Amino acid sequence: MLAVFKREFGAYFSSPIGYVFIAVYLFFSGAFFYIFALSMGSTDLSYVFLGMFFVLMIFIPVLTMRLMSEDNKQKTDQLTLTAPISLFRLVMGKFLSAFSIFLISTSVLVVYAIVLSFFSEIAWAMVWGNIVGIILLGAVFIAAGLFISTLTENQMIAAVGSMAVNVALLLMDSLASVIPIKFISDILSSISVFSRFSEITTGIFSLGNVLFFVSVIVIFLFLTVRVLEKRRWS
Fold first, then answer.
1. What's the pTM value of the predicted model, to 2 decimals?
2. Per-residue model confidence as pLDDT tens digits over 140-157
3. What is the 3-state composition of the chain as percent helix, strand, coil, each rounded to the nearest 5?
4. Which residue from 12, 51, 73, 118 has the fewest beta carbons nearer than 10 Å?
């Protein structure tokens, strides 16, 4: 797993993808920080995190689009699948490489909170809750993007497919509100990523929400392993 992680992590900085993602993340988080905090003289960062939800929904697929699709295109996936490493370790190595890039970018949000703390007292409990929320959200999008990347050898299709999945996760609340059948509406509401993330950004930090995000991550990683397992035996 460590060898896969090192290879994939290094690949982000041997190509523009890693630099572009970090630059985009810093640009939008900085813009939201100025608009919703500095320019308004507010110490409330919840709108910064909420704004980053939509940014991550669009740009994390850029981070994940090459994780498996590049191997599929170059046919190096055959070497990977026959290597003496479990598929779970392979998937985790790729997942953690993208997740590490995401964590590096997200660390700037802690810097914003520290900057505000010099000027006024801030609610650190809410800030840390928001940071945990954005990390869990990013992990969900990365796991989903990795799964989609496994299904194709075209990076652009992988990126667009991942964005579509992310949008679908976002629209669960909207779909639930227009479906007249109550039990279906309740099911869609219960799997809504946006509503649970919104709860965290407003300070409602519960174990149930954390377990929900972890469960979604595990499901996507499990599906990725299953796809690779089927490909290995075929």
1. 0.91
2. 999 999 999 998 888 899
3. 80, 0, 20
4. 118
